[in-house]
From TrEMBL, chain A:
GO cellular component: plasma membrane
Pfam families xrefs: ABC_tran
Subcellular location: Cell membrane
Topology in the lipid bilayer: Peripheral membrane protein
Chain intervals for the UniProt region annotation (Disordered): 263-296
Identification of the protein by name: Nitrate/sulfonate/bicarbonate ABC transporter ATP-binding protein
From TrEMBL, chain B:
Signal peptide interval: none
Higher taxonomy: Bacteria, Pseudomonadati, Pseudomonadota, Alphaproteobacteria, Hyphomicrobiales
Pfam (any one): BPD_transp_1
GO biological process: alkanesulfonate transmembrane transport; monoatomic ion transport
The ABC transmembrane type-1 domain, residue ranges: 93-273
GO MF annotation terms: nitrate transmembrane transporter activity
GO CC, any one term: plasma membrane
Cell inner membrane in keyword set: yes
Localization annotation: Cell inner membrane; Cell membrane
Recorded topology in the membrane: Multi-pass membrane protein
Keywords: Cell inner membrane, Cell membrane, Ion transport, Membrane, Transmembrane, Transmembrane helix, Transport
Function according to Swiss-Prot or TrEMBL: Probably part of an ABC transporter complex. Probably responsible for the translocation of the substrate across the membrane.
Protein name: Nitrate ABC transporter, permease protein
Encoding gene, per UniProt annotation: nrtB
Length: 296, 284
């Protein structure tokens, strides 16, 4: 069985005056079509670097990434990026920004067709009526909506998001999380997303990738989300397994992200990091206790 | 004082102008107080023989009224042409504008594409840097003898001098604007698989346009400064030549008028580019 997206032993090194900085090497991860994966790890561990390699904006210094049977060599309309800084073109209107992407995807389309298509996706993210505003006239949340509309409008095979909501206030972040989840579930979108917000990962992700601290970061664990698929953001905390999962993630960030880099567990295999599924049954809730990790 | 700032500023401007004109009027009135300017006891007939009154009436500082009258006369018939030394103000201005636009237009055509190349290629940027550093500080008028010698045509030489002085600010600003286009905008284009030519026109050009326009605005200012000096040197036609010629005629009135016209024209050129700059500026 071959995965939809397959990261196969990629490495990234930067040459610095003090020697080579190996951000990570021999990194393996695979995703199925329609899956939503979140990556969690401390700042500087190399999350953005991984995402840039997936987008094709950066090249790995070793290894390959295979997407839908083809090795990635450079950016592609198959993989849309939602940038943390939204990266809208400030001289274009909302419609202009989205239409630019649509016209790049469909070079043979007429102006009207491009416009209609762009307007449809502006409506999907709830920005109908703001089509002719410039980005400078929009709030942070609205700008990020335009970024999402632009990414969705090219109907990519995969969506790549780098901390898309981290610059937003909690309320706006919540509504945008709801919409992204709704759209992705409805359309079966494959998503790779970086976040540092544990609750965001719990709400959105099917699987959560835990990266150890850098340099020489690795994937410590892959956490399967035990929460039901029809979970809702506002009563997430009422799910029986919520705290087990949350504690597991926080415990990782607080303690194990450092420990696991320096001393990987016995039998650790970079190609098949341990897969865990923290539930009420496996994790005694309440204490940040030493844990058992189910083998992969 | 409920008046808006703009209106108050305009009032102060008018007031300053009136004060200036009155002071001018008062200053020039002394020159022409009949025989009061003559040395005491001098017979007017004798004075006339000595040429004192004769010369004082032409070379004395004209009053604002004289200038106004003459300005009106020149502006009401700006395009007459009575031989090489007597052309309307409009014709002279048109010659100067023509040269500036030719030289400046040529500079735009060279500086903006070359600035793109320098801004996009670190190699070219470093390779061309020494040349630019040496050529940029040369006074445009220093090129004049060389231009006259190689081109042999004084009018074309003036255009060349305008070209050479306008090219640097535009070149450097374009290169800087292009080099500092935000990486994230370029990444947007890359992820959308936008080709290099389309990227240049749809991302880099609009992103760098405000910086490029700043350079163009600096350049047009320099070009207009230089054309007057260049035309004084090469002679023949143009507003600069007009100033020189009227000085030789000892017509201070016309010199003052020419100065005024040069100032107003320079302001108009600057405002045109300021307007274009506003069109391409985007808020962030
Ligand atoms: N262009 C670069 N040059 C040198 N080092 C870099 C560069 N980009 C990233 N790095 C290094 O790679 C590491 C990972 O960076 P990044 O992927 O941005 O981390 P994260 O997104 O997880 O915070 C950092 O330690 C950073 O110093
Ligand atoms: Mg990052």
């Amino acid at each position: 069985m071959s995965a939809y997206l397959s990261i196969e032993g990629i490495a990234r090194r930067f040459r610095t005056p003090k020697g080579t900085n190996t951000v990570f090497e021999d990194l393996w991860f695979a995703m199925d079509k329609g899956e939503f994966a979140c990556v969690i790890g401390h700042s500087g561990c190399g999350k953005t670097t991984v995402l840039n390699i997936l987008s094709g904006l950066e090249e790995p210094d070793g290894g390959v990434v295979i997407m839908d049977g083809q090795a990635i060599d450079g950016p592609s309309l198959d993989r849309a990026v939602i940038f943390q800084s939204h990266a809208l073109l400030p001289w274009k209107s909302v419609l202009g920004n989205v239409a630019y992407a649509v016209a790049s995807r469909h070079k043979d389309w007429s102006r009207e067709k491009v416009r209609a298509h762009a307007e449809r996706f502006i409506e999907v993210v709830g920005l109908k009526g703001a089509e002719h505003k410039r980005p400078a006239e929009l709030s942070g949340g609205m700008k990020q909506r335009v970024g999402i509309a632009r990414a969705l409008s090219i109907e990519p095979k995969m969506l790549l998001m780098d901390e898309p909501f981290s610059a937003l206030d909690a309320l706006t972040r919540g509504t945008l999380q709801d919409e992204v989840r709704r759209i992705c579930v409805e359309t079966g979108q494959t998503v790779f997303m970086i976040t540092h917000d544990v609750d965001e990962a719990i709400y959105l992700a099917d699987r959560i990738v835990l990266m150890t601290n850098g340099p020489q970061a690795s994937i410590a664990e892959i956490v399967e989300n035990p929460l039901p698929r029809d979970r809702r953001r506002l009563d997430l905390h009422k799910q029986p397994d919520f705290y087990a999962l949350r504690n597991h993630l926080i415990d990782f960030l607080v303690e194990r992200s450092r420990v696991l880099r320096d001393s990987p567990p016995a039998g650790y295999d970079r190609r098949r990091p341990p897969v865990v599924r923290p539930t009420l049954a496996t994790e005694p809730v309440g204490a940040l206790s030493p844990r058992r990790t189910a083998g992969g | 004082m409920g008046l808006p700032l703009r209106l108050r500023a305009a009032l102060v401007s008018v007031l300053l102008l009136v004060v200036f004109l009155l002071a001018w009027q008062a200053g020039t009135a002394g020159f022409r107080g009949g025989g009061a300017g003559l040395p005491a006891g001098m017979d007017p007939e004798y004075a006339k023989l000595m040429g004192i009154t004769a010369s004082s009436s032409t070379s004395a500082m004209p009053s604002p009224g004289d200038v106004g009258k003459q300005l009106w006369a020149l502006l009401s018939d700006p395009f007459y042409d009575k031989g090489p030394n007597d052309k309307g103000l409009g014709i002279q201005l048109a010659f100067s504008l023509g040269r500036v636009l030719l030289g400046y237009g040529g500079a735009v055509l060279v500086a903006i594409p070359l600035g793109f190349v320098i801004g996009m290629s670190p190699l070219m940027s470093r390779a061309l840097d020494p040349f630019i550093q040496v050529l940029k500080p040369i006074s445009p008028l220093a090129w004049m003898p060389l231009a006259l010698y190689t081109i042999k045509d004084s009018a074309v030489s003036a255009v060349f001098v305008i070209f050479i002085c306008s090219v640097w600010p535009m070149l450097l600003n374009t290169a800087f604007g292009v080099a500092s286009v935000r990486r994230e905008w370029l990444n947007v284009a890359r992820t959308l698989e936008v080709g290099p030519l389309k990227r240049a026109f749809t991302i880099i050009l609009p992103a760098a346009a405000p910086t490029i326009l700043t350079g163009m605005r600096i350049s047009i200012g320099i070009a207009w400064l230089v054309i007057v000096a260049a035309e004084m040197l090469v002679g023949g036609t143009g507003i600069g030549y007009f100033v020189w010629n009227e000085w030789n005629n000892l017509s201070i009135t016309n010199v003052i008028i020419a100065i005024l016209v040069i100032g107003v024209m320079g302001m108009i050129l600057d405002q045109i580019l300021a307007y274009v700059a506003r069109l391409v500026t985007f808020p962030e």
